[in-house]
From TrEMBL:
Protein name per UniProt: Arginine-ornithine antiporter
TM regions (residue ranges): 12-31, 37-60, 94-120, 126-144, 156-178, 198-223, 235-258, 278-300, 331-353, 359-380, 392-411, 417-435, 451-469
Family: Belongs to the amino acid-polyamine-organocation (APC) superfamily. Basic amino acid/polyamine antiporter (APA) (TC 2.A.3.2) family.
Organism ancestry: Bacteria, Bacillati, Bacillota, Bacilli, Lactobacillales
GO cellular component terms, semicolon-separated: plasma membrane
Membrane topology summary: Multi-pass membrane protein
Protein localization: Cell membrane
Keyword Transmembrane helix: yes
Organism (species): Apilactobacillus bombintestini
InterPro entries from the UniProt entry: AA/rel_permease1 (IPR002293), Amino_acid_antiprt (IPR004754), APC_superfamily (IPR050367), Arg/Orn_antiprt_ArcD (IPR022461)
KW Transmembrane helix (keyword) present: yes
GN (gene name): arcD
Keywords: Amino-acid transport, Cell membrane, Membrane, Transmembrane, Transmembrane helix, Transport
Primary localisation category: membrane
């Protein structure tokens, strides 16, 4: 097979974006969004999220078009704009974020299987660990066959897992009642309208939407494997638009079938029990099967991401060289082995800690915000310096919107999550020192500013560890 045949086309790139975004969150979205918000606040929350995520998607599109030499997207934007150490941190944080997220997928998958086979005990026993390990290494060997083979399978899985979601949407449309949707639209409980209360509700929905949109950068990560460079931005933007519409329909239509109180008290996954309420037990069976397929697809997508980022970073000298090794199929073999060995090791924690899922999921979600923010900041910097471009003003404005949104996400994540991410980045300091001293043979490891940043990371990491041990941070 020639190199062109191994490249990813637009459909496969869109499949990567949608496949990585749709994990398990959509199946409980109507419950999570309604926990503290009425239909009106949910509408506003989705509008803000759609604008913010689209600004990030357009940022990725613009930067991949303007800087075709930056093949690894997420990491390379930070490297080009803010130096080698920031580029390393971006790649390091994204890598850790993805493989830690894969651990949560393992537990979520076992929880879904428990609906059909109770012996799995929601992913907290030896049997669950063994089955999850078999699935982990099955995906491992699939990716070793090459990115094209894995992405083709991912596209098929993505199409398959959309079927129960579209079925749900159709049934919701047929069951939708406008008077249910509009009753207590702003969740004032009979009190006069209060803008402050509504804004508080909107903020609570934003925290949920951040997590369900993880994966929008899928096409950018594989920019080096795309048949056409312009397809990268198209896939990202189209993927975001498609998912925004699906999320809005799934959430808002549910408010026309059950009121806020009923939705917020549904068991997990809420979509299954909502469909069971309308069409019987078969509804729950269909959704749980969809959840299993969805998590399998997201796990495969994120396994590909987790191996690709350090591989691309290593090729450009921003990650240890050993991660750059390929097998005969062009798959990043060392990167994949290191990544999945870490996933395997950390999956053992589920045998002794029932709350480990929350911890890994929280850290994973917070860490990915750093690469997003650096991409947005670089959009502003590059566009400001690109004085000869006809679209300069548009791109500066786009970068500002994406930057404000990224900062908002960091704020919305909360101080606890930010503290926990400093542990991740502090752990990367020895790796960066090795990279600079051994691989790159640099006489000076850090610039003055980078040294200050590293010191503060260590200080805040120590504080975070103390807070965890003392129980002041818990999940």
């Amino acid at each position: 097979m020639n190199d062109s045949a191994k490249k990813l086309n637009l459909v496969e790139l869109i499949g990567l974006v949608i496949g990585s975004i749709i994990g398990g969150g959509i199946f409980n979205l109507m419950h999570d969004m309604s926990a503290q918000a009425g239909a009106g606040a949910v509408v506003i929350g989705w509008v803000i999220t759609a604008v913010g995520m689209l600004s990030l998607g357009l940022t990725f599109q613009n930067l991949t078009n303007k800087r075709p030499d930056l093949q690894a997207g997420i990491y390379s934007f930070a490297d080009a704009g803010f130096g080698r150490y920031m580029g390393f941190n971006s790649a390091w944080g994204y890598w850790l974020s993805v493989w830690l997220g894969n651990i949560s997928y393992a537990t979520l998958l076992m929880s879904a299987l428990t609906y059909f086979v109770p012996v799995f005990d929601n992913g907290h026993n030896i049997l669950s660990f063994v089955v999850a390990s078999l699935i982990l290494w099955g995906g491992h060997f699939l990716v070793l066959r090459g990115i094209h083979s894995a992405s083709f399978v991912n596209t098929i899985i993505t199409i398959t897992k959309l079927i129960p979601i579209f079925l749900f949407i159709v049934i919701m449309i047929l069951s939708f009642k406008l008077h249910v949707f509009t009753t207590d639209f702003w969740l004032m409980h009979g009190k006069p309208f209060n803008l402050g209360d509504v804004l508080g509700q909107v903020k609570s929905t934003m925290l949920v939407t951040v997590w369900v949109f993880s994966g929008i950068e899928g096409a950018v990560i594989f920019s080096g494997h795309a048949k056409k460079r312009k397809d990268i931005g198209r896939a990202t933007v189209l993927g975001i638009i498609i998912m925004a519409l699906i999320y809005m329909l799934v959430t808002l239509l549910s408010f026309g079938v059950m009121n806020q109180a009923q939705l917020s008290h549904l068991n997990q996954p809420a979509m299954a029990y909502l469909l069971q309420h309308l069409i019987g037990k078969w509804g729950a069976i269909i959704v749980n099967l969809g959840l299993i397929v969805s998590v399998l697809g997201a796990w495969l997508s994120w396994t590909m991401f987790a191996s690709e980022v350090p591989y691309e970073a290593a090729k450009f000298g921003s990650f240890p060289k050993l991660f750059a090794k390929e097998n005969k199929n062009g798959a990043p073999i060392n990167s994949l082995i290191f990544t999945n060995l870490l996933v395997e090791l950390f999956m053992l924690s589920f045998l002794v800690a029932s709350s480990a899922y929350n911890l890994f999921y929280s850290i994973s979600s917070a860490a990915v915000l750093i690469p997003f923010a650096f991409s947005a900041f670089y959009q502003v910097k590059y566009s400001f310096l690109d004085k000869g471009a006809n679209d300069r003003k548009r791109n500066i404005a786009l970068g500002i919107v994406a930057s404000v949104y990224s900062l908002w996400l960091l704020y919305a994540a909360g101080i606890n999550y930010i503290l926990l991410t400093t542990i991740l980045f502090a752990a990367g300091i020895p790796v960066y020192v090795y990279l600079q001293k051994v691989d790159n043979r640099e006489k000076r490891t850090f610039t003055k500013i980078e040294r200050i940043i590293a010191v503060f990371l260590v200080i805040f990491a120590i504080i975070a560890i103390y807070e965890l041990i003392s129980g002041k941070i818990s999940f």
